[in-house]
């Protein structure tokens, strides 16, 4: 079965919504999604049960939905999740369990739960670190779980040169490229931490570039005045908005695409006009 890809615009809108609802930094959430899945909401790991935009494994997903699902319109899912005496999360009905796990591939649900998860982890890590948790600390908590992150960060403070694979053999087995260098040598805790920091930094740089490009395009379009907000046959703002909607929904004929902006620029126009109240 072929899975239709979910547009980057829809993914980023979902992340923005999650950020605004939870107060968790948009750039961090976007950077995390870029690292985890390349903004592919249907991504699946080959070595674990991880799936979706934020690559939640099954138990982590069930835990966060149980705790926060009802706050975001997923009470049916939260109420269906139970917990054993040993702490394992379970769903009795197989079809319901599948439906809940499939929410990992919904950008809005995944982004909201990732934001809530990050917020919970920030609170839990602060007492251990004695300082506010930064983006790399939060990513470690997502990657290893809160208990694993506390263990990792505490060990790194006392022995930064210790091999990460020795402390986390199961995680290392599923993520060799993180715990081992290309020559097969195990990476130290500090090297693993720096690797994640670099990845988040690169993702943040990409986010800033995209935002600046959007602002530049919007400023250029605004300077043209209402009659030609988007170039091409001197459309009005209303015409430009209609064109943008057609381009993004794939309902435009090839003839209508002549002398018009690319779909990417049309999407920027749509976002700009929406912010002006034209949506």
Would you mind describing this structure in some detail?
The chain has 279 residues and is mainly α. It is built from 13 helices and two strands, in the order ααααββααααααααα. A hairpin with a 5-residue loop joins strand 1 (81-83) and strand 2. Helix 2 (26-37) packs across helix 11, helix 6 (107-129) runs parallel beside helix 7 (135-158) and helix 7 packs antiparallel against helix 11 (189-223). The two termini are 35 Å apart.
Helix and strand arrangement:
Elements: H1 8-22, H2 26-37, H3 58-68, H4 75-80, E1 81-83, E2 89-91, H5 94-102, H6 107-129, H7 135-158, H8 164-167, H9 169-174, H10 176-179, H11 189-223, H12 237-249, H13 263-275
Helix pairs in contact: 1-6, 2-11, 3-6, 6-7, 7-11, 11-13, 12-13
Summing up helix and strand content along with how strands pair, one would put the structural category as mainly alpha
- Run of helices and strands: HHHHEEHHHHHHHHH
The largest β sheet comes out as: 2 strands, antiparallel
Strand order of the largest sheet: 1-2
Query: What is the helix fraction of residues, given as a range?
Result: 55-70%
Q: Tally the helices: what do you get?
A: 13
Strand content: under 5%
- CATH class group of the largest domain: Mainly Alpha
What is the average per-residue confidence, as pLDDT, rounded to a whole number? 79
Q: Distance between the terminal alpha carbons, to the nearest Å?
A: 35 Å
CATH topology of the largest domain: Lysozyme
């Amino acid at each position: 079965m072929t899975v239709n890809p979910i547009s980057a615009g829809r993914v980023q809108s979902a992340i923005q919504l999650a950020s605004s609802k939870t107060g968790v930094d948009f750039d961090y959430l976007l950077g995390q999604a870029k690292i985890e899945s390349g903004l592919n909401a249907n991504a699946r790991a080959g070595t674990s049960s991880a799936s979706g935009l934020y690559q939640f494994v099954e138990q982590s997903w069930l835990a966060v939905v149980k705790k926060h699902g009802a706050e975001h319109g997923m009470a049916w899912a939260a109420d269906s999740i139970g917990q054993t005496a040993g702490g394992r999360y379970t769903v009795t009905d197989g079809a319901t369990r599948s439906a809940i796990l499939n929410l990992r591939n919904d950008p809005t649900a995944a982004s909201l739960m990732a934001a809530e998860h990050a917020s919970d982890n920030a609170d839990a890590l602060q007492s251990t670190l004695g300082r506010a948790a930064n983006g790399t600390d939060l990513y470690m908590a997502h990657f290893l779980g809160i208990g694993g992150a506390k263990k990792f960060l505490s060990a790194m403070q006392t022995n930064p040169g210790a091999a990460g694979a020795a402390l986390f053999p199961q995680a290392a087995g599923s993520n060799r490229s993180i715990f081992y260098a290309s020559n097969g040598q195990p990476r130290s805790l500090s090297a693993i931490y720096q690797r994640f920091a670099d990845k988040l930094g690169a993702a943040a740089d990409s986010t800033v570039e995209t935002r600046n490009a959007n602002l530049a395009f919007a400023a250029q379009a605004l300077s043209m005045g209402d009659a030609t907000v988007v170039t091409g046959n001197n459309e009005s703002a209303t015409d430009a908005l209609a064109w943008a909607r057609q381009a993004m929904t794939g309902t435009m004929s090839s003839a209508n695409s002549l002398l018009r902006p690319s779909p990417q620029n049309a999407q920027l126009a749509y976002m700009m006009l929406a912010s002006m109240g034209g949506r």
